[in-house]
Specification:
Length: 230
């Protein structure tokens, strides 16, 4: 494969290879961005395209500098790998009730940058395969993860009670139903008289994930329940 690419002159920098690499960056970055846009993520089509194009240009510039002036062609792309972390960090958010969102988008942007570097140096096969693998992970891995977590019979919850008086009966009744509470931590809520509760809920296999969540919501004094990520 490499011999074929080399025989076609696709490893050397020229007007045609520059155009090819940029178009490939647009396509690969766009494919990943469309999947994020479909899920209404903050970093979508344009963001993924720009990250992949930018990394490609950076790698081509490094190759040009090395061929023209000499030196290490890996120094400039190395800054892309570390620098993309700032953009990725901007997509990570912690919601009002401490639910973390945006980690997948941040990781995807980092991989998109790496993919752009591969395109920029002419590693076409590796970049295209990476694109297909990444889109497969983005589409199907979350479905597998959700199914797996629902079979663990565990829930990380943040619960708001309207009054601290409802907290003790709640915990006592759950334990009577063989539902174990651990990692318990309380916090202040927006309601001055209320209280927030972080906990890990381990429920019997007889209950489904949905049934356990509905049971918690049904207790007297419970104002809000949200499953949180760690």
């Amino acid at each position: 494969m490499l011999d074929t690419i080399e025989s076609w002159g696709l490893l050397a920098l020229s007007e045609w290879t520059i155009l090819l690499r940029l178009m490939l960056a647009v396509v690969c970055g766009g494919v990943l961005g469309l999947e994020r846009t479909r899920k209404r993520r903050p970093a979508g089509l344009r963001t993924y395209m720009l990250v992949c194009i930018g990394a490609t240009v950076s790698m081509m510039t490094a190759q040009f500098m090395s061929q023209t002036f000499g030196g290490d062609p890996g120094r400039l792309p190395a800054q892309v790998i570390s620098g993309i972390g700032f953009l990725g960090a901007g997509t990570i958010m912690v919601t009002r009730y401490y639910k973390v969102k945006g980690l997948t988008t941040a990781a995807g942007l980092w991989v998109a940058a790496c993919m752009g570097l591969a395109i920029g140096i002419g590693f076409y096969f590796g970049a295209v395969v990476t694109c297909f693998v990444l889109i497969f992970v983005m589409i199907f891995a979350d479905k597998f993860e959700n199914r797996y977590t629902k079979r663990l019979h565990k829930l990380h919850l943040y619960i708001i009670f309207d009054s601290i008086q409802h907290l003790k009966p709640f915990m006592k009744d759950l334990r009577a139903k063989n539902i174990d509470l651990s990692d318990v931590e309380t916090s202040k809520s927006d309601n001055k008289e209320g209280i927030g509760l972080f906990c890990l809920l381990k429920f019997p296999s007889a209950l489904t994930h949905t049934e356990a969540l509905a049971l918690v919501e049904s207790y007297e004094g419970v104002l809000f329940v949200e499953e949180i990520d760690y």
